[in-house]
Amino acid sequence: MTSTSPLARVVRGSGPGLLLAHGGTGSIEGNYGPILDGLAERRRVVGPDYPGSGRTPRANGPLDLDTLADQLVATAVEEGLETFAIAGYSLGGPVALRAATRHPERVTALMLTATFAHPSARMRLLVEDWLRLLRAGDQEAAARWTTLVAAGAPYLDRMTPEELATLIAYARDSVPPGAVDQVELVGRVDVREDLGRIRVPTLVISTALDTMATPYHHRQVADGIPGARFAELASGHLPFAEAPGEWLGLIRAFLDAQA
């Protein structure tokens, strides 16, 4: 690959390659931060931030899935990875799937968490509400809504009022400049035709308490990929906050089995 990547990136560790793809309105540190050290213990981890997240400037126009997938692969190659597994979270799942079908010579395995191939009617309704809140500029209302929708009910139910206020404040303050662009891409994603073309070992991790990208979507992805493994995690849409140790364990065990 001769193209260059405009994406800022996190690079850690050494060993076999692992490329990370984060979720919409997230970032590498925001979505993978609690498990980065564990992932990098035996692997060279490259985590690019999408346009408008982290240190990557916002794009000049709408995000394109093919372009984003190519940019992620280019970032990994620039960091010395000739081949690599990809871990994709939420929107990062379709990004990883498209990267695997466009660059099959590079991708060795896939781990897809809390993800989807195409938003259902319910999820499209959710995306429309999310975009309405983001565009309205009421950051407090958007933060309260995303906290309620994204976090699993048991995780929220156990919180003290102070803990909940802290979580809402984090959600409010961490919205990236490219949030609208990324959520618009969520609404446009359709990688259903990619599923049957995947030829690498794949693990689909279903966040079983997820009301954002529901288990309906996770099962659709797993059922469409030949030979895909399916695992459940007792978490809502925020496994990095709700069950980071268990999430890391599933990813590492799957990667170790491919060695």
UniProtKB/TrEMBL annotation:
GO terms for cellular component: membrane. This is Alpha/beta hydrolase. InterPro entries: AB_hydrolase_1, AB_hydrolase_fold, AB_hydrolase_sf. It comes from Streptomyces malaysiensis subsp. samsunensis. The keyword Hydrolase applies. Residues 18-244 form the AB hydrolase-1 domain. It holds the Pfam family Abhydrolase_1. One of its GO terms (molecular function) is hydrolase activity. Keywords: Hydrolase. Signal peptide: none annotated.
